[in-house]
Amino acid sequence: MSIQQHPILTPLIAQANHVDVKTRQIRTAEPEQELRRFIAAMIGYNPAWMQTLYAIRWGFVRMLGMRQDGIPNSNQLRPEQVPMQAGQNLGFFKVVAAAEGQYLVASASESHLTAWLAVVLEPVAGLEYKLHTVTIVRYHAWTGPVYFNVIRPFHHVVVNQMINAGLANLQAA
Prior knowledge:
Layout: H1 10-14, E1 18-27, H2 31-44, H3 48-63, E2 89-90, E3 93-99, E4 103-109, E5 113-125, E6 128-139, H4 143-172
Antiparallel strand pairs: 1-6, 2-3, 3-4, 4-5, 5-6
């Protein structure tokens, strides 16, 4: 099964304007703890260069006539603090759906677009798993594609660095 056919993602992808999937292999005997450790480190990754990008974004969205409520500040999370129930906050995202050791889907919605972040652990064989990090975007107005196409190159860099931070946390444990 392709990750895009995962039952929790299919309805989101069906109406998406953009889907990005980044997949890594991991080995674990503890998928519940590994998923939480990965997400905690990924969401908590917030170096100075990312804060600078958010500051630049603030000016850009204002040029498009939109507003941003300040610069997101991702606090460091412990794995046990990763929310696994719909409606709970995860940084500037809100959890949409989650299943321990399997997946977490969260969304952030603004006037120009809604973005979903999904982290899915897919069993391969034995202790081997595919760790999918999925970004799904749906535009709401003309500003959605304008905004996203300008930030897209930065999006890839940011998400890859967030994934690397999550993987580094798994290796350190």
